[in-house]
């Protein structure tokens, strides 16, 4: 890990997602703030659907780190699909974030909570880095 950080810091600037430029201070802050001491983050939203209707939400992810969004819980009233290869979400460089598209489709009347987790699938004993809850109501 330290060798990776040093490689980044040896460069004056790194071009990243959507052409943003990162300087040494930004990169160092990223590694300290995001990789080493990242706090768990939770978000919540509401969604209303009719039977047969689909809605998509975008979440930011970085599959090159091993972290992936996945469905931890979902009510029977919906189908949930997580697509990490959505058109237009390709990063410009390896290691840069991309938009992950989560599509929710109402399949029968009902309500419940969809729980999405951002974690490394092989790290079963660790808490997810992020969670996203969708309170869904299908009419």
Describe the model:
- The protein has two helices and nine strands.
- The protein has 139 residues and is α+β, with helices and mostly antiparallel strands.
- It folds into two domains: 2-36, no CATH class; 41-138, Immunoglobulin-like, CATH 2.60.40.
- The radius of gyration is 18 Å and the shape is globular.
Summarize the structure.
With 139 residues, the protein is α+β, with helices and mostly antiparallel strands. It is built from two helices and nine strands.
Sheet with most strands: 4 strands, mixed
Order of helices and strands: HEEHEEEEEEE
Helix-and-strand structural type: alpha+beta
Strand content: over 45%
Q: What spatial form do the alpha-carbon principal axes imply? A: globular
**What is the residue-averaged pLDDT?**
76
User: What is the CATH-assigned architecture of the largest domain?
Assistant: Sandwich
Annotation field: number of helices: 2
Briefly, what CATH class of the largest domain?
A: Mainly Beta
Radius of gyration: 18 Å
Q: What is the number of independent domains?
A: 2
What percentage of residues falls in helices of 4 or more residues?
A: 10-25%
Taking pLDDT < 50 over at least 5 consecutive residues as the criterion, the unreliable ranges are 1-39
Oligomer: single chain
CATH topology name of the largest domain: Immunoglobulin-like
Measured distance between first and last alpha carbons: 49 Å
**What's the arrangement of strands in the largest beta sheet?**
3-9-8-5
Count the strands?
9
């Amino acid at each position: 890990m330290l060798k990776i950080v040093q490689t980044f810091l040896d460069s004056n600037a790194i071009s990243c997602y959507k052409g943003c430029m990162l300087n040494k201070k930004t990169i160092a802050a990223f590694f300290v703030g995001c990789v080493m001491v990242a706090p768990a983050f939770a978000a919540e939203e509401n969604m209303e659907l009719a039977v047969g209707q689909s809605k998509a939400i975008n979440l930011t992810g970085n599959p090159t780190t091993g972290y992936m969004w996945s469905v931890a819980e979902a009510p029977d009233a919906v189908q949930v699909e997580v697509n990490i290869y959505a058109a237009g979400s390709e990063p410009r460089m390896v290691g840069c974030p991309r938009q992950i598209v989560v599509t929710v489709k109402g399949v029968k009347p009902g309500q419940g909570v969809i729980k999405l987790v951002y974690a490394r699938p092989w790290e079963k004993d660790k808490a997810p880095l992020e969670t996203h809850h969708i309170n869904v109501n299908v009419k």
